[in-house]
Fold each of these.
Amino acid sequence: MKALHRLALFAYPRAFRHQFGDELQGLFERRVAARRERSAVAALLIAAFLLADAVISGLAQRFRQAPDLPGSPSSPHRGRSVLSWDSIRRDLAYAMRQFGRTPGFAVLTVGSLALGIGASTAIFAVVHSVLLRPLPYEDPDALVTIWSHNTRNDEPNNPVSPANFEAFRSAPSLAAVEGLYSFLTPAQVRFDGEPEPVLISQITPGMFTLLGRSPAIGRTFGDSEAPDGAVLSHAFWQRRFGGDPDVIGRTMIVGGAGAAATVPILGVMPEDFTFPYGSMLAGTGFTRSVAVDMWWPISRQRDSRLVDATGQPNRAIHYFGVVARLAPGVTIERARADLETIATVRAQTFPDTNEGWGVTVRPLHEQTVGRLRPALLLLLAGVVVVLLITCMNVANVLLARAAGRGRDLAIRSALGASGGRLVQQTLIESLLLSTAGGLAGLGFMSLALGALLAAAPANLPRIAEVSSTWPVVVFAMALSLASGIGVGIIPALSAARSRAGDSLRDGVRTTASRTRQRTRAALIVAEVALAMILTVGCGLLLRSFISVLSVDPGFKSDHLLTMQVAVPARVAAGGDLLPFYDQLESRLRALPGVTAVGGTTRLPLGSTSVTTYLEIEGRPLTPSERPEVEMRRAVFDYFTAMGIPTLRGRTFTADDRAGGPAVAVVNQALAARLFPGDDPVGRRVRFASSQSQTWMTIVGVVGNVRHLTLEETPKPEIYMYYRQGPPVGPFLVLRTAGDPAELADAARAAIRRLGADPPRDVRTMEAIRGQSVAMRRFILLLVGSFGVLALALAALGVFGVVTLIAAERTTEVGVRLALGATPRQVLGMVVGQALRLAGFGVVLGVIAALAVAPFLESQLFGVGAIDPLTYATVAFVLLITAALGASVPARRAMRVDPAAALRT
Amino acid sequence: MPFKSSESLLPLTPISFEILLALIEGELHGYAILQAVEDRLAGRLPMRTGTLYRALARLLDEELIERTEAAEDDDPRRRYYRITALGRDTAKAEARRLADQVDAARAHRLLPGTRK
């Protein structure tokens, strides 16, 4: 609003603005603030009034109209003065009559404004809900996340060790510090009868208190030292128990035979409570899905890794996320300094584990949605450009109408209407159009928002919270107001300039004034320039998308079906999993159309990764110097099934059995990092977690695989064999001869017959690969549609203006034709004029695009922000579009009958 | 400074007169002038900020009022306005002119009350 008023002040002459601009702005802010105490609507009304006033008074000042007082006793035009109820009512009635006479014009204008305003508001609704609205916690601005910063590898977002977490609690600048596992845990629980899969977030008992949220029913963990129980999420409570309040006090059985425990349900959190958001897990969440079913307390009873062999908090394993609340009045910088001091002291006290580890402190809000900010702001900018182009088109049409009404206005002005009244009348027309556009836009927005949310990637943080709230409606109204003034201002100026004499003195052949022609040309140039910026952005994103899709993921993603299987609890409890695996392998292999069967613990592009620290035989390193590598198990013929090439040595065979010599396969990146210029085959490594780990002999090197995202460079990675440590929840991959999706039912049935739960997440690898670029596709889709819209609008704008110009030049064209010009030359003349304007727009657009392109950098991949090919293509497309837009009226001009044209 | 008669500026526009009236008691900043005029008129529409400032600009031009710098600890954007001697005389002259007109109106029985 404030910025809008600053803009409106430009209606005043410069000298006046310099003298009084700041005061006017200050007064605007005070008056709006004074009304806001009464109600938001009153504030909005006075803001609208004062904005209109700034424009009208500004224009009046330019034309030196005497200032008048509304309804004052001695005003010569009582009831007709600017901004009196009476005059507004008259102008509204007049505008309605005008629109009634040309309904097509009104519908088209309102429709295009509705589209522009609706689309902008839909994007703003997303920006507002995701970026601007506070997180659903008490005083969320004081919440921060803390990560361990691995300064050696320059990885600032590592989870925190339990020992460091305890140490951070002593920071004086933090009022409270709580922890959570930096991953979600899938588990099987039984309420009655069958085990059900649930997704759990494990948190320290005080987390709910720290976040300042109490349960909807029941209680949370309380202050007990060893709490036990579970708190349910609202969604899970509704889904599983139909919202039954008697669920409190019921119990569930956790874990298989032998290790089963009974856990009471303590409470249910409110519907609007989400924790953690996926992005709070620092990208190491366990599964794709981040909708938490329940929260369990972290306790020493349940988690043996919390302490080391000596009973002290564990310093060696990093797996905690940390959320803290700043003490009142403390800045995040102070907290950071405090925590850095703690980290430094600990690095001196425990150099073996803490050397090279600093801290990262970041506002919780930024942690949650910070990564989305550039993309969302990009979308907002894109849609506002579309709205701007729409406004320019509407302004152009209004300008043409004003020209057509020149005589009308001139007569009114001759009859005593002041310049201010003419300005008011034109502005009321445009405001009426834009308000109608805004209202229709709100309707369009709710449709667009529905489509937007359906197309949005599900793992976009806070996307579920998007809704059209009051601020969104206010935004839409402010946009309508701004666009109403925006599109009205130029025709209004032109109306105020029309002096009584000019138009009346002119003969029948009214021509647009030189200024009006220049204004029109300027609008076209600006429109083309804006379309150029948007389309360049669109082109760059498209090229990035293509580069990402053409990244070799390191495996063959076609003809692969994937799923996650849970080893049945009774088998897992029995200890020997291999017979189950053997049966699984033979059943799946026997399915018709299956050519290879493999599996792993972490699927590429589909889940996340787990890392470990390695010791290398014959290379003594302190714990903090040990290399961190990703770790997976290969099940069955994993490398064959995935199409991952073997580069050196061999992969696993049936001879690598349990109890035999431990073996491992490493990827190329690990070979290059740990054994540069050396053959890793035959070398021995082991996990650094304890001295009792066995040494594993590296038997082969395989190709790199893009695991987290297609954009990220592969990290060092080690594979172990499932026969030497079978996992309980492996992902399986089936390579098929035909369409992998058709095999899903057969695979499900085969697994059911083994007595296992139906597999989860049955998807083709192509679908997973598609999912991994979902955000990129989403942004491209939106920016792409903005780009197409911008092109169409620009073409429409060129068409409209060239039609007007051609119509005004009818006589000239007639003369030319009569003097021997060929119709083809006329065509060339009209199109040439349009192309000159468009060309100027393209040049301006290129300059502007070069200036804003760096802001796009974060969204690009494999293409620079200044990519000549994109710029050239877009310029070419725009010029073609402009030529097409101009060719329709140009053809009409070609057919002008010289005799007829000259006679008029 | 060329001599300017207080009568030469009459009649004042109603808004100019209102501003001068508001400033008779002492110097005021823009918002206070606005409130004073709004209070007195209890207008149907809120007072237009633009109108106020355009009138202020004209009064400054005609040297009926003058502008002072912001006080030390005040909002630096805030300026105070003060009526000049010429402004005071002009306001008086305008008031006399209006009173004369009102008397005339009374004489024609447009208003209740008698002629003095």
Amino acid sequence: MRLQLTLSVLSLCACGPTSATSGGSVRHFQDEAVSVTTPAAEGSVTYFDELTVAPSWKADVITAATPTMSAADVVSRATEYVEVRHEVSIAFDHARDGDAFDASVTLSAEPDYLSHTLTLGRQWSLLAKRAELGVRLSLSTNSVGRSDVSEFSERLGVMGFGASWSHVMSPTLVLQGSWGLEHRRGYQSNPYRYVPIYGAGPRPVLVLPESVPVFRTGTSVEGVAIWAATASTYVHGAVRLHTDDWGVRSVALRGELWQSLGADAFRVRLRGRVYQQSSANFYAPQYDSPDGWRSGDFRLSRMGTVSLGPKGEFRLRLGSRRLVIWAVGDAVYFWMPEYLVRTSMLASYLGTGISVDFK
Amino acid sequence: MRRLVLVLALLSACTPVRPWERERLAHDCMRSPVDPAQAGAYGHVIAVREGSIGGSLEGGGGCGCN
């Protein structure tokens, strides 16, 4: 078996790839609490025009401060920390005549969090290549720790399933629909987050670790319309609805406008997104009793986001190679009226990268 | 089942697309997302700061955002 595998790998390498890509990028996200810089490198090699192998690496360099509680008697000082997360992944994709199978394995590690994820996908081309049906399965195991308490160890399992349908409606219009289901089981709190308990008075009487349910199941549907307005202008519009058994319901609207210029040597994109959600049914701005679930996570409160930003792409053809240089920037506004620490914040997302295709 | 048949019938009744009419459809801007890797990176940054789950099929991962 080992000999067969070795021979297979050697024969694959000996045949030589038919195409390859490689690229690198760096992105930076900054809000009023966290700064994340993400260098990344990725590549792919395609054999026989059918089998693609794509390894990638990225790191998140996170500089953050634990939030200062608005109740001054509880936690009054923000604590700064720097943390690095590494993620390596390898993906395989086999495509023939529009039908495809893909699989990927991802390992993510940081001092207090270890995650393994496996995804499997299958796509079928249908109706004389006018439609595509896809299904996807994702399994993830996570180990949650605390960098300051070595004995602290919790587990979280995540299982996801999704199905999608893409349909060519006309020479200029494609519609896509997808459905996703995700089930989480295990530790879903933040081990560093504490929640003040107020009792009957105006001041907190004690502070307890965050505590949320062990199970969570959510489902979402998304519809996307892609329209070629002209030979060089493309418009994308999408709506996504989500609900889960913690009571979080959300709607997200997304739009993109792509403009190709100079025989596709330069592309500009403008994108915008609006998102709004309800709070989890156990979330409260402040808790009066130590009984029951409690969370200080603004993501479980009623909140929304608005983001808007451009992107530019230079696409140069150098013989059999194609060079793409891109830069992106987005501004994001968050509002969370039920969150005591802050009720709104601004964030920025910047990125630039380069990739080369070899044929 | 009847609804599924109706939907399939409606979809198959759309404007026929012949091979020589697929030029615009072949453009990579007619995919969503146009660049899956870049869209995934941005989607992750945004998704970990919102309360919804499901759909993205991203597994766990701490990235300091939990």
